Amino acid sequence: MRTAIQTGFAAALALPLLLQAEVVDRIAVSVGNAVVTTSDLDREIRVTAFLNGAPPDFSAAAKRATADRMVEQQLIRRELETNRYPMPSAADVANAVDKFVRDHFKDVADYGRALAAAGITAQDVTSEVEWQRALLAFVEARFRLGVEVTERQIEDYFEKVVKPAALAAHPGADVSLDDYRAEIEETLAGPLVDKQLDDWLAEARERTDIAYHDEALQ
Amino acid sequence: MNLVRALSGYVPLALLLLAFASSPLRAQVQKFEGKNVASIQFDPERQPLEPAELSALLPLRLQAPLRAADIHDSIQRLFATGRYADIQVDVTPVGDGVAVTFLTTNAWFVGDVSVSGAVDSPPNAAQLANASRLDLGAPFSESRLQDALNSQRALLESNGLYGAKITPSLDYKTDAAFEQVNIRFDVESGRRAVFGPPVFQGDLKMDPAKVTAATKFRRWLIHTWKPVTQTRLRNGMGGVRRLYQKADRYEASVTLDSLPYDSNTNRATPTFRIDAGPRIRLNAVGAKLSRKELQTYVPVFQEHSVDHDLLTEGARRLTDYLQSQGYFDAQVQYARQPTAGDMAVIDYQIDAGDRHKLTHIGISGNKYFDAETIRERMLLRTASFLQFPHGRYSASLLSRDEASIVSLYQSNGFRDVKVTHRIVDTYRGRRDTIAVFLDIEEGPQYLVGSLQVDGMEHVDRSTVLGQLSSVTGQPFSEANIAADRDVILARYFAQGFPGATFEWSMTPGAQANRVDVRYRINEGQPQFVRQVVVTGLRLTRPALVDRSLELQPGDPLSPTAIGDTQRRLYDLGVFAKVDAAIQDPDGDTTSKYVLYDLEEARPYSVAAGFGAQLGRIGGCDTCLDAPAGTTGFSPRVSFDVTRSNLWGVAHSVSLRTRVSTIDQRAILTYSWPRFLRRDSLNLSFTSLFEYSKDVVTFNSKREEASAQVSQRLSKTFTLLYRFTYRQVAVSDLKVTQFLIGQLSQPVRVGMPSLNLVQDRRDDPIEPHRGVYSTLDVGLSERIFGSQRSFLRVLARNSSYYPLGKKLVLARNTELGVIHALNYECPPGDSACVLNSIPLPERFFGGGGTSMRGFAENQAGQRDTGSGFPLGGTALLFNQTELRFPLFGSDIGGVLFHDFGNIFSSLNGFSFRTGQNGLQDFNYMVHAVGLGLRYKTPVGPVRADLAYVVNPPYFYGFNGTPQQLLNAGLNPCPPNAPNQCSVQNSGHVQFFISIGQTF
């Protein structure tokens, strides 16, 4: 009996090899009627790692985290399309990519070698840059304009945080609120914008059918 | 926000040189990249999409090189159809190429959702089904099922059913062909919890016992706790809020913190958080306003909150109110005094100013529209008796009128129109009057120079263009463009183009004030009906439903047709609910299943009612003292039972009964709608038994059977074909002796008849314009089994004319004649003539709906001895009414003039207004009067008071029926003057009923 089981088990293991059938792509997460496939996850992990200068992490936990992030991307992309938010121009994106290449690589050939080593294409990087720009524009248009930082909050932050730090760095210097007003406003607005975006994403998740295919995230 | 942070910057080059781990997936795809696709297969072989649609969807092509991007796109496109829950792609080397296999798992969609089991209402089964939020045709998943269960549990618990058990049963088999899962929730409600003593937290500022009493959670007198329901909980909180409101604590906040359940005691103990807030006193300073008026106009009372916005809104409403009362200069402001102790005082400081009357509205500068057209759109009104004693005016109404006029002009191409106003006080020297002058500067009218429509390929272009407003030479306005947009998109939607879009642009035309307009249509992809799926039929035969379907496979997916079919299914009268949906409407497929989930109505319905009739219907059966009737009261009970959807073909049988002191009636009706499978035909069979005393002269017993086919010829015309067979016997006749023998014989009548109805009224319940006409022709003949032969014709015509915006002139004329056939009477034999038409077949009339100069059925000929009415064989009634608003929008008034009578025969017909002696009734009786109408959802409640100018006078007999019997042929003058007295039918008549007179 034991032999029979062992034989069967070995045959089952060997069968796929014999057939040489391989799953080359599959749905990892569905978001509404859009999908994130395992090939999307693979590319996203590689591109993010490339941009972050880190080795790509194909562990289950990293895949899950990437899938979460791509779900958010899908939700925002759908919003961008539905409400016709302006997308960054091709020239704008190309300039940003050129600057990136100039800043970080010796030449185009060097950049090409790095892409090949990372297993991604120049188009993958361009798409990522375009997405980043679209996202930032969306956040600005959708949430930043609705966030109000009061004069009182700016003054408080200046008195309690900025001024002591500035004086500590430059004792005796003349520290004026006007010099720091814009930066303080952005600093204070940041967490508020983050919260609004998080709330919006949570709500969007709530009203969208999202299904994770756990076996594809292993 | 990790989304942004993860993408937030570029990194030093050095880090990029770190080694990348290789991914097996990337390796797999690259291994097959560029190899020829030898085959494309699906597993399982049977797919939810048709092969042609699959082929059109996939970017992969046989014998073409395999690309990873194509595989990814294939997955995306297949999933976007909505028909798949999971898709994997296998690639197997085959020779030099590869075999591609799509391993798919079908998606499922919500079908019939039902709730069964021991459901203790509330909530009822329908509420539980709704709570599931599983909508017909929507994608189904386990997570949606869990959401549904959670939602249902929450609903049950909010109604005190904490121990409820819900067991879902999923039927994947019945409608597997359409990937539809039917879901049944078996619910065991369990025992309902009762309230425990409520716990109050916060600053109550009131005795908790008093607050507890306000919740009404305890039963009256016995003081046991009531079972928990959502409604009781809501009402309980409302009761507490009202308690605080009565104590002037309008800011009191009452919220339910928790409702913990103790399974040992089966009690749910509500914990309320209450913040009573200060007492608030609202005062009107500077003008006399009652507390009720303040409560009506200051919204803090309704909103249970006091804030700046609500108080400002209160000031605005009070200003409008005062202005509508003639205080056109009224100014209202509020001031909140500092809270002292537990009291906050808010003063509405009112400067009402003098009371005015709006006596004139002047309109000038208008050329394109006449002043009357503009006035019709205005809310301002000059003073008029009763309705607007001071006129209707306020600053906000004036602004709205100016905006309305601007909108009117702009929608007709006057883009630069300007409207200004001027108010003149003490108009024409009359104190406390004002006049409003509106000056209109029309400016040029812009016209459409040309219209270009691009992209319209798949709809009938000429038909659509014929319906557009913005065609060459027509006024140019955005309102017209919007109307055109609606016309175009409606046409596209109706033809299955759900994604059609419309854009427009304009450029200045070649001529001055001309605009060239361009419409751009993006038609999008058409969608078609894949199949119509009907679920939920139990008793009903599918063929009955099939005949109502307006959609067939392959038809354009038209929401209009889907809605029409839904309406037709409702019209069958056998379904309590008809849910219609497109399966997975968001799925990116060209052909869709159209779903109808039907819930059959209960086969039996029972209705019982009570009522009463008050009018001149009285008089005892054996007395002769009130031939014109006396005021009487008749209670009434009705009971109806209907069995619908007989044999599953929408036939029905109903029994309607009514019992009152003057009428006992039972009607059994069998209805066959859509007779001969034609929508316009309905067949019915009716049998009736009635014992009635509605004519004071006699009691009648009627046994009748009839068959009727109604045919709807057009929207306004209906034709009824009817055959009636009846036997009527009369008894307790109150007439002179020599007539009794002939008139009391039971008579059998068989009569085919035709009835043509034309209805062009704008509103059948309360018409303002239009025409309503009927023509009824019936022939009673021996060949139809009749014992008397006669021809009966009755015609009616009503018409309604709006006079201005408020008044309606309504008129109604009714004309009828009964002509005896083959019945010869010796000259002067009045009894024979009378008997030529059986007494119950004669015309009887008079009353609130026919001629208000008479009480019910009192018009026409009378017995010369007793004075009781005998009806007649010819009739003419004419009513004219002027209907007008009286108080507000719900109470109206009527002035009316009725004339007419029932005549002995067509030969006796006369427009004469005087009565020629006490035995002459062939003359026109005239009545004038007034009435009140109070609007209700079932029609106006009507009260009419009529003064009869020339009521008939007649002899009444002073004695018993036996004495009348003994009095001979002519009991009254000149033979026996002492036993008779002269009476009349009354100068004043009064009627109360429901519905307009005609």
If you had to describe this structure to a student in words, what would you say it looks like?
The complex is a heterodimer of chains A (218) and B (998). Chain A is mostly helical and 218 residues long. Chain A has eight helices and three strands, in the order H-E-E-H-H-H-H-H-H-H-E. Chain A has helices at 2-19, 38-52, 60-82, 90-104, 108-118, 122-142, 151-169, 177-206; strands at 22-31, 34-37, 210-212. A three-stranded antiparallel sheet of chain A has the order 2-1-3. In chain A, strand 1 (22-31) and strand 2 form a beta hairpin. In chain A, helix 2 (38-52) crosses helix 3 and helix 7 (151-169) packs across helix 8 (177-206). The radius of gyration of chain A is 24 Å and the shape is globular. Residues 1-5 and 7-18 of chain A have low confidence and may be disordered. Chain B starts with a helix and ends with a strand. Chain B is of the alpha+beta class and 998 residues long. In chain B, helix 8 crosses helix 9 and helix 19 packs parallel to helix 20. A 16-stranded antiparallel sheet of chain B has the order 26-27-28-29-30-31-32-33-34-35-36-39-40-41-42-45, with no helix packed on it. Chain B has a four-stranded mixed sheet with strand order 5-4-7-6. In chain B, strands 1-3-2 form a three-stranded mixed sheet, with helices on one face. Chain B has 21 helices and 45 strands. The model of chain B is unreliable at 1-23 (pLDDT under 50). Chains A and B meet through strand 1, strand 2, helix 2, helix 3 and helix 4 of A and helix 1, helix 2, helix 3, helix 5 and strand 2 of B.
